[in-house]
């Protein structure tokens, strides 16, 4: 979280996060045809950690190693040139053919839908998946595009000046989800 953030509420503690990710892993398992395969693609930044956890849980629950990749959508965003500061570029690493693949795109928070649209553009530049689904830990609404998540951990209605901050122990040293009001930066 940023030092200027005003925490309004803790929405999920570490146990809630783990329980929700486990449920989402079960939803992924239920959504795919084992004969056709499935792959998970985490969107940078925190979607990558969520995707990794989903992969591990599916391996533990089903004994199946689901191919997993990471995707940076920075160059595909429709607001790329309008952003006040240059976005940090990250690596896209999808070590499998996306053609005719059932893909599950994974991100931590769904807000306007623009990141998901950018992810679909990026993935289809690599091939033509047979199916694309979207999974998010938090859906906060405020859609600007006709995009919805197929699998949702929790719906958290917010107002425009609020943000949802997801923290994962892999990068933040703890798991949790907070509702914050943006402070002055």
- Kindly report the CATH topology: Rossmann fold
Please compute the radius of gyration using only Cα atoms: 16 Å
Enumerate how many helices there are, as a single number.
Answer: 4
Main β-sheet: number of strands, strand sense, barrel status? 5 strands, parallel
Shape verdict? globular
Strand content: 25-35%
Side by side, the strands of the main sheet go: 3-2-4-5-6
* Percent helix: 25-40%
Number of domains: 1
Low-confidence stretches: none
Q: What structural category do the secondary elements indicate?
A: alpha/beta
| CATH C-level name | Alpha Beta
The CA-CA distance between the termini, in Å, is: 13 Å
Tell me which CATH architecture applies here: 3-Layer(aba) Sandwich
Number of strands: 8
Mean pLDDT: 92
Order of helices and strands: EHEHEEHEEEHE
Walk me through this protein's architecture.
This protein is an alpha/beta fold. The chain has a single domain, classed as Rossmann fold, CATH 3.40.50. The chain is built from four helices and eight strands. The strands form two sheets. A five-stranded parallel β-sheet has the order 3-2-4-5-6, sandwiched between helices. It has a three-stranded antiparallel β-sheet with strand order 1-8-7. The model has no long low-confidence stretch (mean pLDDT 92).
């Amino acid at each position: 979280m940023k030092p200027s953030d005003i925490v309004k509420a803790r929405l999920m503690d570490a146990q809630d996060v783990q329980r929700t990710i486990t449920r989402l892993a079960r939803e992924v398992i239920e959504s795919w045809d084992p004969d056709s395969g499935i792959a998970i693609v985490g969107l940078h930044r925190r979607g990558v950690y969520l995707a990794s956890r989903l992969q591990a849980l599916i391996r533990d629950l089903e004994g199946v190693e689901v191919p997993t990749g990471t995707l940076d959508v920075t160059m595909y965003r429709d607001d790329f040139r309008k952003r006040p500061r240059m976005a940090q570029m990250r690596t896209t690493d999808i070590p499998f053919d996306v053609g005719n693949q059932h893909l599950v795109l994974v991100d931590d928070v769904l807000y306007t839908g623009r990141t998901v649209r950018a992810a679909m553009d990026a993935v289809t530049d690599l091939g033509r998946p047979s199916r694309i689904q979207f999974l998010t830990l938090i859906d906060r609404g405020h859609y600007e595009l006709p995009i919805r998540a197929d699998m949702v951990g929790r719906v958290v209605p917010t107002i425009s000046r609020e943000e949802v901050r997801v923290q994962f122990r892999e990068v933040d040293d703890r798991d949790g989800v907070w509702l914050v009001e943006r402070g002055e930066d």
